[in-house]
Amino acid sequence: MKRRTMIKTVAAATLAGVLMASGAYAQEVIKLGASAPKSGPLAGGAEVSHWPAIKLWLHDVNARGGIDVGGKKIPVEVIEYDDRTSGEEAIKNIQRLATVDKVDFLVAPYATGLNLATAPLIAKYGYPQLAATAVTDGADDFAKRWPNSFWLLGTSASFAESVADVLVKLRDKGAIGNKVAVVNVADAFGIELMNAGKPAMEAAGFEIVYETSYPLGQQDFAPIISAAQAAEPDAFVAFSYPGDTFGLSAQAKIANLDVGAFYVGVATAFPAYLGANGAAAEGVLGAGAVNPDAPGMAEWRARHKEVTGVDADYWASAMTYSSLQILEQAINKVGSLDKAAVTEAIKGGTFDTVLGDMTLDGNVNRKFWTVGQWQGGKFYGVASTGIGGEAEPVAKNGWE
Amino acid sequence: MSVIISGLLLGGTYALIAVGLTMQYGVSRIMNLANGENLVFACFIAFWLFTTFAINPIVGIVLIVPLAFVLNWLIYTYAMRPLVDRAKNRGQLEVDSILATFGLLFILQGIMKLTFGGGYFNYNFLAVPVTIMGSNYGLNRIVAFIAAAIIAGALYLFLNHTRYGTAIRAVAVDPVSAGLVAINVPRASAFAFALGGALTAASGALLSTFYTFNADMGIIFTMKALIIVIMGGVGDVRGAVLAALLLGLAETAVATFIDPGLTIAATYALFMLVLLFRPQGIFGKRPS
Questions:
Q1: pLDDT tops 80 at residue B261
Q2: How many CB pairs under 8 A join A and B?
Q3: At CA B107, angle to CA B105 and CA B109, rounded to 5?
Q4: Does B216 contact A251 at a Cβ distance shorter than 8 Å?
Q5: Which chain A residues in 240-259 lie under 8 Å from chain B, judged by CB atoms?
Q6: Which of B2, B10, B122 sits opposite A220 (nearest CB)?
Q7: Which helix (H) or strand (E) holds B176?
């Protein structure tokens, strides 16, 4: 009796051992963990730029049979958690993804704050972190502090300085004069852009005739627009977040704010912006961009709509998708799921993405779109840090 | 001048947000933390009606209000009545209702997220400029202001010049004594709660014409409504409207003359002044 039990135990252990070993060598699925907002203040942005792009990439990669790992195609599965736009929640999610779900790789969280909040933990677990939706001046510092982190979307200084460059172009064309009204949302992104943008505009010879900040979550923009209007600016610049981008634009249209250049921040590149403003969107400048006429871009956007049911934005959607393409190609190159090796491969390589060839010099993408403009129903990049193919900025011509 | 008009328009919006809560808190004694969710829900319904069936939001109100009335009646009957029956005193009912409606808040928010997702929504309706004394204002805000005036006026007439309105005010003053003079207190409470919910939903439909909203925004409206209701005096429609207009004017003046960043500070400064000097609210009577 005893012997039989022992034989059983040994057999079971052997079997388990064999199964485990085969599990390690012949993985059946690659698990990808994703933690980002599905609720909270940033959910609105994540629902446009983050989640659909992941969905599309997952669809595409599995349609190919999965990621090619050393000659064998392994399908991918994504485990999604809502971080409720909270850093603490995001940290718990990453912890869970790493220790309970034991995912092979991570999709970086959404937006600057959440990427920074989770970076130390992601570094501890050694996953490559391809932050596709973070705009920060700290990119180089962060890349040094967490060598597994990569910063793709650019720096706030370049975003703000490009606004000044575009205004100079418009001034040279005679579209605007020297007077600029500048406002910003009193939150990280708005403050960083204001701090970099205001000196850049002043250095370019612009006179700031109205300047103010407003709190995050502001809904009533009538006082701001009418005060700006009273200062009779030639250009209006707002370093704003999605809610205020919509609010400021609607109010500017109602007040018929007569400016030759109108810039609003995040969410100008969202398809919903065109939906909400219609013809009034024509000529509006905004943060970030893509080149919608670049090879493959129109086709990619069409597929995005077809697979996810929603339109891609004209900015970070493609970057989020690109970050996953980079991850996939790095895994192809290494031929295994070794996190450290894949991280090294990302550092050295040039990757073929939907946004063209991308190299991460010192873990930071140095070529990115900074300012775009609605022209004829599409959002064209009018300034970048050396991508090429920029459209010419045009004057804002009324709100009808 | 433009400051005063903008301020009044904003105040009208705030009045819309707060009037429903005045009814729910003042009469039914339910501190409804899900008030804002109720409002955002109506925003979504108005949005859905407008984008799917091209139903004008003003017409949409005709559909939304009865729906909200029934829904809130059911919420009161099945979720709040047990708390009312159980509560030994007003304080306990307030604590219980705050906890219960806090839960309700998440349920409603969850339903909205499930149906519409977490994205931002807005649509274009009457976003045309109207010139009043040399400045432009959005027609949708003016419509909302007029609607607020009509709703508040009708509510005031109903409460002060009809038999049932008087009964409801009696319940607001003292539910126990109201019961002694043959007022069906549970029914009047349910009615007031449902009416408050319906009014909130009507404001939601109006607000949706010029606000950018998402499923998480309810709490902002609840906070604003709470301040206005307490400033105006609990259960007092006139007080709530006056408080809302004051708040609108103060915020616009501060945003224009001082700094838009200080509007929230102005709101709370005003709130504190009222709490310090007239804790019973602008029109409230001192408890005897």
A1: no
A2: 112
A3: 65
A4: no
A5: 242-243, 246-247, 250-251, 253-256
A6: B10
A7: helix B175-180
* A216 → chain B, closest CA residue: B261
For B28-80, what is each residue's pLDDT tens digit?
A: 888 888 888 999 999 999 888 888 888 888 888 888 999 999 999 999 888 88
Alpha-carbon distance A277 to A254, whole Å? 11
The CATH topology of domain A28-154+294-369 is Rossmann fold (3.40.50)
Domain membership of residue B283 (yes or no) is no
Q: Determine the distance in angstroms separating the CA of A77 from the nearest CA of chain B, rounded to an integer.
A: 22
Of A47, A186, A247, the CB nearest to B261: A186
B208: containing domain? 2-277
Which pLDDT band holds residue A12 (cuts at 50, 70, 90)?
Answer: low
Distance from CA of A292 to the nearest CA of B (A): 23
Range from A46-60, B81-95, B263-277 that averages highest in pLDDT: A46-60
pLDDT at A46 over 80: yes
B252 part of contact set with chain A, CB < 8 Å: yes
A388 touches chain B (CB under 8 A): no
- Are residues B255 and A213, on separate chains, in Cβ contact within 8 Å? no
Block residue for tokens 């005679």: A174
Closest to B120 measured CA to CA, from A324, A254, A239, A250? A250
Are A264 and A246 contacting, i.e. CB atoms less than 8 angstroms apart? no
Residue of A nearest to B212 (CA): A243
Domain(s) of CATH 3.40.50.2300: residues in chain A: 28-154+294-369, 156-291+370-384
Among B22-26, B122-126, B239-243, where is mean pLDDT lowest? B122-126
Instruction: Tell me whether strands A30-36 and A76-82 are parallel, antiparallel or unpaired.
Output: parallel
Count of CB atoms situated within 10 Å of the CB of A257: 21
Mean pLDDT of B175-197: 87
Domain A156-291+370-384 belongs to what architecture? Answer: 3-Layer(aba) Sandwich (3.40)
Cβ A229 vs Cβ A255: under 8 Å: yes
**Beta-sheet pairing, A149-151 with A105-107:** unpaired
Answer whether residue B60 is part of any domain.
yes
Let me know: does B18 contact B234? Beta carbons within 8 Å: no
The CA distance from B89 to A133, in Å, is 52
pLDDT at B110 over 70: yes
Q: How far apart are CA A218 and CA B266, in angstroms?
A: 14
Q: How far is A182 from chain B (nearest CA, A)?
A: 13
Q: Point out the residue among A40, A242, A250 whose CB comes nearest to the CB of B127.
A: A250
**From B118, B122, B211, residue closest to A43, measured CB to CB:** B118
Q: Which two tokens stand for residue A130?
A: 């391809």
The mean predicted confidence, pLDDT, of chain A is 89
CATH number of the domain that B10 lies in? 1.10.3470
If one counts the domains in chain B, the total is 1
Instruction: Give per-residue pLDDT as tens, A136-149.
Output: 888 899 999 999 99
Nearest to B124 among A41, A46, A278 (CB): A278
Q: Is there a domain that residue B286 lies in?
A: no
Beta carbons of A267 and B120 less than 8 Å apart: yes
B65 falls within a domain: yes
